[in-house]
Write a structure and sequence with these properties.
Elements (H helix, E strand, L loop, with lengths): L4 H8 L3 H4 L3 H12 L15 E6 L4 E5 L2 H12 L3 E6 L4 E6 L5 E6 L3 E5 L3 E8 H10 L4 E4 L2 E4 H8 L4 E7 L3 H16 L7 H13 L2 E2 H7 L5 H10 L16 E2 L3 H14 L8 H7 L3 H19 L6 H15 L24 H18 L6 H11 L9 H11 L2 H17 L18 E4 L2 E6 L8 E9 L5 E8 L4 H15 L1 E2 L2 E4 L10 H8 L2 E4 L9 H14 L20 H5 L4 H16 L11 H12 L4 E2 L4 H6 L2 E4 L9 E3 L2 E3 L2 H8 L6 E4 L6 E5 L4 E5 L3 H4 L4 H39 L8 H7 L31
Parallel strand pairs: 7-10, 13-18, 18-19
Antiparallel strand pairs: 1-2, 1-19, 3-6, 4-5, 6-7, 8-9, 11-12, 13-15, 14-15, 15-16, 17-20, 21-24, 22-23, 24-25, 25-26
Length: 804
């Protein structure tokens, strides 16, 4: 949704932070509010998790392209002192250092600008490890003061205009906090009624004996929801550990803050304080007196060398790396200088460096690019000995296998052969202590991705293939809704899944995770996020396993679809092993029958099959949790706002009060559109309804009003499958008309070039020379028929008073 700059500026001008700005700063602020973000984040990234959040403060969307930025945006939206946040505000001209220490002017784009009553601040969001690397590479620019970091060139440029500049550092401790922050944002956006005094007293009575979970309190006290409990924790009426525990059914609630501190102290007494000893710490603990004395001498020499202005050599930087390794193992710095006297000797025959480098280069450049199937170290060694026999006696086969495993881990082999997608598909599972957590709440985090159904329809439907868009819950794989498109992915299928979810349940999930396909990344997405109030988070392009819940359901769906007649499982072209056209020859179901069977399997079989030890189905578990978390979901109903937000964007060209709007081979008109055009207003964009394509929605400034095509009455009796086919025909007709128009323009261009070439005057030639060089004229033959007369259409008579 476009930012209302005048409304935002009117909100900011009375603040003290605005009065601190210089004239140039006020001009920059107006340019930020009136312009678009300096860049669109995350669209071209292979590794980043990106998406958009709706901000009620600025009535627009805020983009993020990493978990660190998402955490900052959520914290800002939860902070009552923050009056608004805008992403990618503008470029600043700074005087910064390079790696050699030279100063030069350059432009930087801060991640965000934050508005508070007393100051307006540019924000640069970085993970902790990234900031530490920048501090080592650019020590004159990135400075650490206690636990905070500062970017000095950005501060100087911002202070010159009256702004502030801050570096927001997010470490690993923010993982649980950012999982809870999304629920706190939903709590601010939803209208949760606070619990009554009687219910609060009943809860305190239960908590005086011991801490209790959210599930216990909701079951013991009637009418209390999880949203009311979270609201009480935010207000200080109840207490919990939002920094350490994800808010879900197992979240512990306490009567007072002293109980929380007592509980944390009890946990610390039983916690593992010491980490397993690393090699540096183990060597330091086993060091003899001679080795410790030698370590002290080496440490003193290193300190003197560190303080000297002389240029540092490679030995100095090797010592720095050893100190860093010792610190990471919770060992003292002197552990980096303890020699390993006991490990000397017995090193064996050294491997020649030229042979080692030749083997590694051969595997990387020759073996891995041409390998078919799975790479094998034994085959790599055999190929090396065959192609480079001069190095055969330099190393044993076991030594070459060891070098192979050291340099080419499975994920690195996949990176060299299949790129980043293969790397993510092969690498080991993420360490559980470093994973980004999500609350296991039904309906709160969902996945939406298209899957090509492995069944083709019969010949009456031209053998089309369905693209199914199930909206799958992350906690128990419950299917909330589904969208459908024909033969290719399209945003009609995504929007139909959202409309279907509202029609079935009356709400939308708070967060929808999806991939970066064209049906999800388009110009209508920012406005859809702002209108619906839903967070759309995109999975990285190179990380296919991030949508595990969705992909697992896709496999089960196609396992069922492959059992139906017309299965395309055996081959992408629909062929069996003998080359017969299996899917087209055996297809028996129309599109309507195929959609009905898939819907029945999803909503009646998959959702209602008992799972787990409790014997509950996915639908029963979903409805049970929905009673407690109902007020944290995004409530919607089928309204013109929802129809416009989930519609297909249409550019309006030459709207006419009499003829209406022409698009996709249809003419849309209504009395509201005629009145609007007669008053001089012109809608810039319209939305084609994803459920009823005979309706075109547009914004007249105060409300969303429809325009109807001539097929409106015909579509009212159609079911969803017939409407999906109707939409596919509309899209195909529009594509054909574009292709015909493109061909016609190309022919017209070629004709104009030919005419221009023919009308170019020829160079002057002597008539005598031309007559001599001209060929003899052919004899005149009598014509069999007279040439056809050209028909001339008379011009129409212009009547008096008529408009030409």
């Amino acid at each position: 949704m476009a930012l209302d700059s005048e409304k935002l500026l009117a909100k900011l001008e009375p603040l003290a932070g605005y009065t601190q700005l210089s004239l140039k700063g006020k001009q920059l602020l107006r340019a930020i509010c009136e312009g678009e973000p300096a860049r669109t984040v995350g669209r071209q990234s292979l590794m980043a998790v990106h998406g958009e959040l709706y901000s009620k403060d600025v009535d627009s969307t805020v983009q993020f392209e990493s978990i660190a930025e998402r955490t900052f945006v959520l914290d800002s939206l939860c902070d009552p002192d923050t009056l608004g946040v805008l992403c990618q505000p503008a470029q600043l001209r700074v005087l910064a250092h390079d790696r050699r220490g030279r100063q030069s002017h350059r432009t930087i784009t801060p991640d965000y600008i934050e508005f508070k009553a007393e100051r307006f601040c540019f924000i640069e969001v970085k993970p902790l490890d990234v900031v530490r690397k920048l501090g080592q590479e650019y020590p004159a620019d990135w400075v650490q003061d206690a636990d905070t970091w500062a970017f000095l060139p950005g501060q100087v440029a911002a202070h010159a205009m009256g702004f502030h500049f801050r570096v927001q550092v997010n470490g690993d401790e923010a993982r649980v906090w950012q999982a809870n922050a999304l629920m706190r944002v939903r709590l601010r956006l939803s209208k949760v009624e606070p619990m009554s005094g009687a219910k609060h007293g009943r809860i305190l009575t239960l908590l005086n004996s011991r801490p209790r979970t959210v599930l216990e309190l909701c079951e013991r006290v009637g009418g209390v929801t999880a949203g009311q409990l979270l609201q009480a924790v935010e207000a200080g009426l109840l207490h919990g550990m939002l920094q350490l525990q994800v808010f879900d059914d197992g979240f512990l609630l306490f009567a007072n803050a002293m109980d929380v501190e007592r509980h944390l102290a009890e946990l610390k007494r039983h916690a593992i304080v010491e980490l397993p000893a690393g090699p540096m710490l183990a060597r330091y603990l086993r060091a003899s007196s001679t080795e410790l004395a030698h370590a002290l001498c080496r440490q003193e020499t290193f300190i003197k060398r560190q303080a000297s202005p002389e240029k540092k050599n490679s030995a100095y930087y090797a010592t720095v790396r050893r100190i860093r390794q010792a610190t990471s193992e919770s060992a003292p710095a002197i552990a980096a200088f303890v020699p390993n006297f006991s490990g000397r000797g017995g090193k064996g025959r050294p491997v020649p460096e030229d042979a080692k480098n030749a083997f590694l280069q051969f595997v990387k450049a020759d073996y891995l690019p041409r390998v078919k199937g799975r790479a094998s170290p034994g085959r790599a060694v055999a190929a090396f000995e065959r192609d480079l026999p001069q190095h055969r006696d330099a190393m044993s086969d076991e030594t070459m296998r060891k070098l192979y495993h050291q340099a080419f881990a499975p994920e690195m082999v996949a990176l060299a052969t299949r790129g980043l997608r293969g790397y993510h598909a092969t690498r080991a599972r993420t360490d559980g202590s470093k994973v980004n957590v999500r609350a296991a709440i039904c309906g709160f985090n969902t996945h939406l991705d298209g899957v090509r159904v492995d069944t083709r329809s019969d010949e009456s439907s031209d053998g089309v293939v369905l693209i199914y868009y199930p909206l799958v819950d992350d906690s128990n794989s419950y299917v909330l809704s589904r969208g459908i498109s024909i033969n290719r992915p399209h945003q009609f299928g995504v929007n139909l899944a959202l409309r279907d979810c509202v029609a079935r349940h009356g709400f939308l999930p708070a967060t929808i995770l999806r991939d970066t396909g064209s049906e999800n990344n388009n110009r209508a997405e920012p406005e859809k996020v702002a209108l619906l109030g839903v967070t759309f988070q995109h999975r990285p392009v190179s990380a296919p396993r991030h949508g595990g819940a969705d992909e697992g359901f896709h496999g089960k769906l196609n396992e069922y679809a492959s059992s139906l007649p017309g299965s395309t499982y055996h081959d992408a072209a629909g062929r069996a092993a003998d080359g017969a056209k299996k899917s087209r020859r055996h297809a028996r179901f129309t599109v309507e029958e195929l959609i009905a069977k898939l819907d029945h399997w999803c909503f009646e079989v998959w959702n209602k099959t008992p799972t787990g030890a409790d014997g509950l189905s996915r639908e029963d578990a979903f409805k049970d949790q929905l009673k407690r978390y109902d007020d944290l979901l995004v409530r919607h109903s089928v309204t013109p706002l929802l129809a416009y937000a989930t519609g297909y964007p249409i550019d309006i060209r030459d709207p006419n009060p009499r003829r209406g709007i022409r698009t996709h081979g249809q003419v849309f008109s209504s009395q509201a559109l005629t009145t609007m055009l007669q008053q001089g207003a012109r809608p810039k964009q319209a939305r084609l309804d994803c459920v009823d394509p005979s309706i075109l929605w547009f914004d007249n400034g105060s409300e969303y009003v429809p325009a109807y095509s001539f097929d409106n009455a015909k579509l009212q009796a159609m079911g969803i499958p017939q409407r999906v086919l109707y939409i596919e025909d509309m899209l195909n007709d529009a594509r054909d008309r574009k292709a015909v128009a493109k061909t016609r323009r190309r022919r017209d261009t070629e004709l104009e070039q030919c005419v221009a070439t023919a009308t170019t005057p020829a160079p002057a030639v002597d008539p005598c020379v031309a007559a001599a060089a001209a060929p003899a004229p052919a004899p005149i033959e009598p014509a069999d028929e007279a040439p056809a007369r050209k028909r001339v259409t008379p011009a129409p008579i212009q009547r008096l008073g008529a408009t030409p």
